[in-house]
Write a structure and sequence with these properties.
two-stranded antiparallel ribbon
Length: 285
Amino acid sequence: MSADRLFAGVFAMDTYFYTSLGAYAFDVRCEMLAELGYDATYLTLWSAEAEADIPRLAYVKARYGLDVAGVYTTLDIASAPAGSAAHVLELIETLPIPTQVAVALYAEAPGRTQSDATLDDQALPWIERLLAVADRHGHEILLYPHFAFWLERTEDAVRLCRRLAHPRLGLSFNGYHWYAVDGKQLSARLDEAAPYLRYANVCGSRRLPEGSGPMAATIEPLDDGELDNFIVLAELQRIGYRGWIGFQGYSVGGNVYTKLQRSLTAYRSMITRLAKRPGWGVLGA
């Protein structure tokens, strides 16, 4: 199998473009990604300024030759109808093209309750409302496990997907969040996720000492950190995943262009090796 056929394509999450000095403009992001050789862009809906970029998704393909891999948002499952959940529904209604909508679910405040199945019945009606919007507009809804959120683990997303069994509902595998939670049983987690997996994102990472702050591990370019992303990609290939691969860039900062270039170079090296030497991706005990 040739390296360019292992996965559908590669995108950088727009979290790369937020630095301590400010955020890069939407069109600059697209120009940079296209010049570097990325296949798609991505939009994180975490502020009014980011939401203002939604209409721009309509011209990304024609102007820059990039696909839109998806958008990301958060939803409070404990929200009243006038709260954040209703706002998320409104945002999805305005997306100008069909796409994948990744949703990280929390309860009242991130970190208050994690992996608590007793709140499933509170979450399911909101997911069903998201799916109703997806049906009307051709989107997919992807549950996004996020460290310290209620929907924290891949197992949580699998449980909800099984309960609803909706063709437009899937999940994302997020290398950083899996690693930050515990980084254990990668093969088992991906085997469970495989029927519902629609995209995956990865980054370099290393664990932080306890008490270092809200993040349990770093987020770094793909060629850095302790986490072995060659094995992560090998496991994704093993389960038959062929979709998008994204690069997480939250808090990376620094010289954005150079770090995006480093991550793409490292990724291409890994998938070339994986295509030539798939046995290298099988670890011993």
